[in-house]
Amino acid sequence: MTAIDSAVSRMKNAVGTSKKSTSSSSSRSTGPVAAVKSVLRPSFWLPATVLLVIFATLWRWTADSKPYLLPPLSAIGESIVNDWQYYVSNAWVTLQVSLIGLAIAFVASFLLAILISEIPMARRAIMPYAVVLNVTPLVALAPALVVAFGFGSEPKLIVTALICFFPILISVSTGLLSVDPAALHVFRTLKASRFETLWHLRIPSSLPYMFTALRVVFPLSIIGAVVAELNAPGAAEGLGTAISLASSNNQLSVIYASIVFLALMGAGLLFIVTAVERRVLHWHESRQVQS
Amino acid sequence: MTLPQSPDAIVVSDAHKTYGTDQKAVVALGGVDAAIQRGEFVSIIGPSGCGKSTMLRMIAGLEEVDSGDVSIFGLRTEDACDAKMIGLVPQVPALLPWLSVLDNVTLPSKINRGAERRRQHGIGGVYTRPDPVDIHGLLDRVGLADAAHKLPAQLSGGMRQRASIVRAFGLQPDVLLMDEPFSALDEFTREALQGQLLEIWRDMQTTVVFVTHNVSEAVRLSDRVIVMGANPGRITAEVEIDLPRPRDEELLKSTAFHDYEDHIRHQLQSAWRDNSAAAA
Q: Which of A279, B16, B37, B232 is the most buried (most CB within 10 A)?
């Protein structure tokens, strides 16, 4: 029970901190023009650029002196430029696995979250396991699933869906229960049905929690897909497979080029989630520009 | 004592409610009797812990009595809620932050749709006004017409509470239950809202039960003030407020008004003294 409470309070903290950080960033710029201007200011881009230069220098120095540790940056760049079709088609495979796996997890966990928020008995039965499984590195199941399901896409989808499932379940079920008690009283004096309360009150109240989970789970889905591919290389495509093949052929630059694509995919997904969140949660306190 | 149910009154009869058990038990209500007539504006005033909010929640059907009975115009609270006869204005506005003011105040009409039919056909001999309320007119009257499409977060505290009141009146409730709705507002806003509340109440002729801890608020608004004391929660006095309506700013300065204030303050203090004497 205490494990559940601590998980719940951690979740609330996560929502709270996201509120703070977004409100501070949104209050600085008010329009697209102001946003572009603030990005062009050296105080905005210089720190990160300086760090990048230092990092590239250190990389280059390491690659020159110990070539078996890191490939030259130029080799990675060449590999990306020359073989971009190879990377893009493999990235597409990995992206499909992660998005389909995530979609399965989302639907299943949302439905289960509704069930356990409506039925206390179900909550008491399921939540302890959900909390434990949420902290279990479920990617370790990948080898077992490959044994069970072979080298097709099934084990990859299952691993991806599994590691996305519990963060969404815990966040959304917490959100469904974090309803303004006064609003709930108003609903009760109107004799609102369970479905009406869920539809008009609980689900909208849970959206900030859901987006907090999605920001975690979108990058996680890529991890799930790649780990599953690493465990079942050769038969199917995907960046995980590409990395695995390159590893056995000592092609360091291919591995790092694949990682570059994975990083871009993760960043792209996070960007999309944040943009959607900003639109959907425009009513949330964090989105209101305080005058 | 038990009071009989009445089709024309909210009746609380010998209501008991205890929270907790053994030594930690708090008797929120220790045998409370009250009858509130149809169309009456009644305030319940008392120190914290006197059970005034508990009483309101019981009438709202949010809490069960341990023993005793609560009936609303001869109906069980459950049936009254089912017919959407009860409008609740909680202490905080409780607007849904993702809905505009207009969507918030019309939300009750989208919930429990069967209730309109039940009210029109009458349940338990209770018939209610059939013509729908002009929600835009109500918003206009409280000065929210321009804010109808704004989100609650864009409004001041006073405007949010106005929206909450419009939401409750929009139901055309037979009973309006208000739980210290103005306690978080500044003095000026509070007096303005009291005036608006009285105006709408006069037109819609709703029965109002108004919980407050503010003596002048109770005197200004009410036909009758019920004074409650704590440990156990009970009614210590009932004061009829025989002042003319409408009660405007001038009346607030009159001697008669201040006499009522003093009288109620005295009742509150003597209840409090009895209590400390009993505790010592």
A: B232
